Structures are given as structure tokens and as C-alpha cells.
Amino acid sequence: MEKQLAKLTARLMEVDDLNRATAVLSWDQTTYMPPGGAAARGRQMATLSRLAHEKFTAAAIGKLLDALRPYEESLPYDSDEASLLRVTRREYEKLTKVPAAFVAKLNTHQAESYQAWTEARPANDFALVQPYLEKTLDLSRDLANFFPGYEHIADPLIDFSDYGMKVRTVRALFAELRSQLVPIVKAITSQPVADDACLKQAYPEAQQLAFGQSVIEKLGYDFKRGRQDKTHHPFCTKFSLGDVRITTRVQERDLTDALFSTIHESGHAMYEQGIQRDFEGTPLAGGTSSGVHESQSRCWENLVGRSRGFWQFFYPQLQTMFPDQLNAVSFETFYRAINKVTPSLIRTDADEVTYNLHVMIRFDLETALLEGTLAVRDLPEAWDARYQSDLGVRAPDNRDGVLQDVHWYAGQIGGVFQGYTLGNIMSAQFYEAALRAQPTIPYEIAQGKFDTLHGWLAENIYQHGSKFTANEVVERATGQPLTIAPYIRYLRTKYGELYQL
Ligand code: ZN
Q1: Are 81 and 28 in contact (CB under 8 A)?
Q2: Which of 497, 417, 489, 483 lies closest to 181 in space, CA to CA?
Q3: 264 CA to middle of ligand 1, Å?
Q4: Which residue from 69, 53, 42 is spatially nearest to 15, judged by alpha carbons?
Q5: Is 271 within a domain?
Q6: Which residues pair with 236 in a beta bridge?
Q7: What is the pTM of this model?
Q8: How far, in Å, is the centroid of ligand 1 from the Cα of 305?
Q9: How far apart are alpha carbons 213 and 103 in whole angstroms?
Q10: Are strands 243-248 and 236-240 parallel, antiparallel or unpaired?
Q11: Which residue of 256, 259, 398, 434 has the lowest C-beta tally within 10 Å?
Q12: What separation in angstroms does the CA of 56 have from each of 7, 91, 179, 344?
């Protein structure tokens, strides 16, 4: 059995090598590659992805998994070996159900649709992408139908990114969250909007980058096993457990864009850097779901990075870095500015209170599209109507409305948005559990010490990689199934104090 297992892991390692090489090419494409490299780079990445897919779905892998099934069943569920076999089998069954010809068709369509979107958005021209989106919807339905027996057609698509979550459970969580959020938003927005002019002064790029790096180094991002470069849309990528990189962008007239995206991406990266080292090269060596991944970035960005204690430590340092801009700005003004709440049009710019309403709109619209209760041609109107009723704002055009997010135009419809809000919900549940276990965490944060929190997250979440599903991680780490209660408690406490609610 050991021999069979060694054979399997050797094959999995080759698949991972190909995938990591694709990641290097992709990182280079979005950071340093000159425009002339685009065409060949696309082809090179497609070739590597195809080879990785062929290798992973090869019959030999299926045979090894079959041969190892009795061995897996003889081991405890939470052993590393049983988990490796379980997670590999799940992935294998998922990928072998989708024919290679369909994958190729989908990839080609996605590239064309993305191209159309890059023209349609600046031109404010929904009609240009409508036929592409209609085909994306057909293909998304086809993709779901390779997994018959689902309860809701979006369930198999949700499984790709948030395994084990269902439309039914997500809807119930979101409905409960919405009923609690709407009154909080109403109470806050009935008061004067916080003044954030102090954040919109001239902040030179070099100092912004230096400050952001000094912050995440303190949080525990390991620069010996990572680095930060500039890009258009910040992301985190991994070439191995010893090389987890992040990217950022700087706006010289907005202090918060680079800073909070750097903290956000470092949260994703610390998760990956914290995975047990001997999982390297296997399907266990990655975050377990988009929700859990987002919980880690949001925990550091919002629960820690926008907290009073965090800035009690860092604000004097920020003032030293930017004396002309900030010496006359009181701590309270700064703290209120970085926690300004106001209903807005753009999801990625939204504050942490209204953010989830943006996600829920997208989740409801994409499930309606998949169900066939909403037609693509009616999508812009449905979008505007929901923004009006949920957030009280209306986009002046489709550019800042239905065309704002790349997701539907570069991938699939269904299963792509729920992870953001699941992550917010989980972030508070994890944080509350960490504070229960280690009540000194908030005092340490106010002194610029993050080891205890980092250690708790590493112990309870990071090290396991993909060994456990999102639901299992939540239950094991917090002793409870996923619940919105800690998230609502967190928002009520923080914004209750800020706005005397
Ligand atoms: Zn993220």
C-alpha cells in the first residue's frame, strides 16, 4: 500500500509542478510582462493547463485511487493520508465528469467573453456582451448538468469553490444576515457621513509601499517565503509553500487603497504560508474553500486592520511617515474615516457594513439566471432595481452597474460570489473563538503584537490546508456550525460605539 501511495503522490506532484509553473507565468503576465508577450503567454498557459488536466484525470490515477480505497478506509478520517486520498478522489471525480472537449470549449468562450467585456465596460455597452453572457449561461447550465442529482442547479457550481455549501443553506444564512444588516445600515445612514478627506491627500507611492510592508511583516507575513509586487488588480498567488506572493496597487491620492489591499492579500498569503509543509505538491496544499480563504483576508483587513487597537499602535507610526498630511488629524478623525459607512455603487469600494448587500444582490441574480426566472436581456434592469431597493442608490450607467465585476464575463454564472460573504461571516466566528481561547489578543494588538492571534489561526485553520471542508474547519475551530451571530455582534459593537446606536 505504501508503494501505491508513493506512486500516487509522485503523479500528483507532477500535476502540481505544471500548475505552479502556470501560476508563475500568470504572475509574470500581470506584473512585469511587456504587452508583446500576451499572445504567446496565453498559449503557453493553456498548454500547461491542458497537460495538468490530462495528467490528473488519467486512468492510472483512478486505478491507484481504487487500489488504495481499502487502505483509506482503514485509517482515521482526520489522518493526513486518509485526507489526501479523500480530497484527491473528490477532485478526480469532479474533473473526470467534465469532458475535455467541453473544458476546451468553455475556456475558448471565456477568453472571448472577457475580451468583449474589456471593450464593453468602458463603452458602457451591455448589448455588446449580452450574446456572450447568454452563451456563458448556457455553458454554466451544461457544466452543472454534468453533476446530476443536485437539489438546485447552482449547487454543483458552488461546490467548485465552496465545497459542501448549497443554495438552500446560503439563502437561509443570507436572508438572516440581511434582516439584521438592513436596520444597522439604516441607523448609520440616518446620521452625517464620516469625513474621510484626510485619506484623500497626496501620499507618495514609495512611502505607502514601505508602510504597508512594515505592517504585514509585523502581522506575520514571511518575506523570506514571499514578496510583493505591483499590479492592476491585487491578488495572492503561490508557487510553492515556500514562495507565496502578493501584489498591490497604489493610488497617490488615496491612502487606504494600497494599505488595506496589502493587508487583505497578506491574509490570504499567511493562510497558504501556514499550511503543513509536508503537504507540498499535493491537493491538500491549498486553502480549503473560497469562503475560508476570504475569512482569513477579511479577518486581518477588517477585524484587525480597521480596529481601534490596531491603530492605537500604528497611527503614531503612520503620522511619522506622513507628518505633513496627518499631524493635524486626530486619531478619532482618522479612525472614523477608515470606517466610513455609506451605501455605494461599487462592490470593491464598499465598507464592511454594506459590502454583503452587494454580494447578496449578485447571488440572487445569478441563481435567478440559472433557474431561468431571469433572462440575460433583463439583467441590467433587475440589477438597477435591486440596488435601488437594497442600497437606495442607482448607477448612472451600466459601467458602474451590471458591468462592474469581471466574474460573470470571464468565467461562469453561478457559484462565484457567495464566498465573499461566507468569508465575512466566518471571519467573525473564527475571531470570536480565538478571543475565547486567548482573551489577551486585543491588548496585544494594541501593542503591535500579533503572534498569539497568528498562532491560533495557524493551529486551527492554516496548517490543515484542504484537509477538512469549510464546514468541518468551522466546527473544529469554533465548536459550532456556521452562524451569523458573531458577525452581527461584531458589527453592532464596533459601529454601535462609532455611531452611538
Ligand atoms: Zn480576497
Answers
A1: no
A2: 489
A3: 6
A4: 53
A5: yes
A6: 246
A7: 0.96
A8: 14
A9: 39
A10: antiparallel
A11: 256
A12: 13, 9, 44, 44
Provide the residue type at 448 as one letter: G
* Burial readout 196-223 (b: 16 or more C-beta within 10 A, e: otherwise): bebbeeebeeeebbebbbebbeebbbee
Distance 353 CA to ligand 1 centre (A): 17
pLDDT at 71: 96
130, 153, 186 — which closes off a domain?
130
Which tens digit of pLDDT belongs to each residue from 194-249?
A: 999 999 999 999 999 999 999 999 999 999 999 999 998 899 999 999 999 999 99
The CA–CA distances, whole Å, from 232 to 5, 249, 253, 281, 427 equal 42, 6, 16, 29, 26
- How many domains does the chain fold into? 2
Q: Which residues form the domain of 427?
A: 167-499
- Closest listed residue to residue 170, CA positions, set 360, 347, 355, 372: 360
| Cα 305 to chain centroid, rounded | 17
Res 107 pLDDT > 90:
no
Residue 391 pairs with which residues in a beta bridge? Answer: none
**Residue 129, number of CB atoms within 10 A of its CB:** 24
Residue 91 vs residues 78, 323, 381, 401: alpha-carbon distances, Å: 18, 53, 38, 35
Do 356 and 426 sit in the same domain of this protein? Answer: yes
Instruction: Catalogue the active-site residues.
Output: 265
What pLDDT shows up at residue 335?
98
Closest C-alpha among 50, 102, 148, 71 to residue 412: 102
Determine whether 371 is exposed, middle or buried from the number of CB atoms within 10 Å of its CB (0-12, 13-18, 19+): middle
- Rounded to the nearest angstrom, the distance between the alpha carbon of 75 and the centre of ligand 1 is 35
**Are 262 and 401 members of one domain?**
yes
Q: Residue 348 to residues 88, 376, 420: CA-CA distances in angstroms? A: 34, 23, 11
Query: Alpha-carbon distance 265 to 245, whole Å?
Result: 9
67: its cell numbers: 487500489
The span from the CA of 84 to the CA of 392, in Å, is 48
The rounded Å distance from CA 104 to ligand 1 centre is 27
- CATH of residue 232's domain is 1.10.1370.30
In contact, 10 and 61? CB cutoff 8 Å? no
Give me the pLDDT at residue 8, please.
98
Separation CA 366–CA 137 (nearest Å): 9
CB atoms near residue 125 (< 10 Å)? 16
- 205: part of which helix (H) or strand (E)? helix 205-219
- Biggest alpha carbon distance in the chain? 70
